[in-house]
Amino acid sequence: MTTRRIPSAALLFLLALGLRGGWVIYRAATLGPELDYPDEELHWQLATNLVSAGTLASDDGRYAPRMPLYPLVLAPFAALGPAGIVAAKLAQAAISAAGVLVARRWARLAAGPRAGLVAGLLVACDPFAVFLANLLLTESIFTLLLLGFGLFSWHLAAEPRPGWRVLIGYAAAAAALLLTRPSAAVLPVGVWGLVLVMARDRRRALAGAGLAAVALGAALLPWGLRNRAVLGSFAWLSTNGGVTLYDAQGPQADGSSNQAFLREFEADPTFRELGEVGRDEFLRRRALEAMRADPGRMVRLACIKLGRTWSPTPNVAEHRGGASAAVSAAYTLFVLIGALAALGMSLRRAPHLRTLHVLLWTPILYFTLVHCVYVGSVRYRVPLMPLLAIGTASLTAARRQMTSEKPGG
Q1: Are residues 195 and 156 in contact, defined by beta-carbon separation less than 8 angstroms?
Q2: Which of 224, 205, 194 lies closest to 359 in space, CA to CA?
């Protein structure tokens, strides 16, 4: 009698889901359906008001404080009331676990089965992804979308004739990224250019870029028209950009996020009368004035934000010590050093991996630079960690090629 082996992909998914879902259940059993951070509360407000009142708006009357995709994902759970918070977190754990499968497939296609297995294990056990799965923040869904966009980009660049499914997936992932986070606005354009340069089939790559541009326009148009109707402005990238930039560059900025300055501004009747769009534009102008007035300070803040974003341990004081900090530091340093080593090998001795590493490091560098301007935080690099894991996993292919090139290898 023969026994069927459980596919490695299923085992990796179950491992990832067990870690993430287990953490969600443990926290719910300990603390109940709590929301720990203001951003979580805002996302839940948007989803709840959409269900109860039919309007995507915050409790204080803001119509576009965030991009719409994540609140739309939360809306079915908001219909369940407070119990929906835990249900949403469990669903988010599954979304995060699905990212393991995408990372495994990308590494497997680009660098071989062993790399796929290593990448899957590393992403499944990412302590930051496990922790963030329990928070109603965009990191989990954005990570999955970024991995999907990277995989479809690799197909388009590396395959001799990518099919229409690749083109459609490439376009859909680009649009979904932007509808989740405005910080992704420029990334697809840069990746399109790189794919066109590297593609084996330039016509398909050009078709993919065109289709992605159409998808971005089609995704943003309803959002912009709705905002025009309720705010008098298209507000394509939400009404949070000016607030965030002032948080990062205003006179009070120290590299972290602390929007206590809003209380001071909101005490001014003139500021309140500006409205949602006017307040955002006002704070953006003030932030730009501060940047122009003292460029040296902007550079110093950028260095602080770089350190905060790539800190091996969490920046939050309660998680900066003990076992959680040690595990976080060990994991971060392992995948970062491994990915850098693999990048070096791909440049010197493994040219077949160069396309992979270009597409891995482009988002890493892009978002690092974005958060040198805006607020720096470990949470903003969480979607980049699977890219480092894939890079680390590609060492198996690079070393195998180097070994086979040795005399007698």
Answers
A1: yes
A2: 194
- Per the CB < 8 A criterion, the answer to whether 156 and 205 are in contact is yes
Bin 233: left if φ > 0, else alpha if -120 < ψ < 50, else beta.
beta
Q: Provide the H-helix boundaries in 269-353.
A: 269-272, 275-293, 295-309, 322-348
**Tokens standing for 219?**
């995704």
Give the number of other Cβ atoms within 10 Å of residue 312's Cβ. 14
Residue 1 has pLDDT above 50, yes or no: no
pLDDT, tens digit, 9 for 90 and up, residues 193-234: 999 999 988 998 999 989 999 999 999 999 999 999 999 999
The CA distance from 186 to 73, in Å, is: 24
Residue pLDDT, tens place only, 153-207: 999 999 888 889 999 999 999 999 999 999 999 999 999 999 999 998 899 899 9
How far is residue 397's CA from residue 58's CA, in Å, rounded to a whole number? 49
Closest to 89 (Cα-Cα) out of 74, 101, 79: 74
On whether the CB atoms of residues 377 and 132 are closer than 8 A, the answer is no
Instruction: Please name the amino acid found at residue 34.
Output: E
CB atoms within 10 A of CB 278: 17
User: What mean pLDDT do residues 287-312 have?
Assistant: 96
Contact (CB, 8 A) for 233 and 227: yes
CA distances from 278 to 60, 237, 273 (A): 16, 15, 8
Give the DSSP letter of residue 183: G
Taking the CA atoms of residue 160, residue 164, residue 170 and residue 174 in that order, the dihedral angle to the nearest 10 degrees is 150
Contacts of 90 (CB under 8 A, 6+ apart): 21, 24, 25
**Closest by Cα among 182, 107, 53 to 356:** 107
Chain segment 83-127, per-residue pLDDT in tens? 999 999 999 999 999 999 999 999 999 999 999 999 999 999 999
Sign of CA dihedral 152, 157, 158, 164: positive
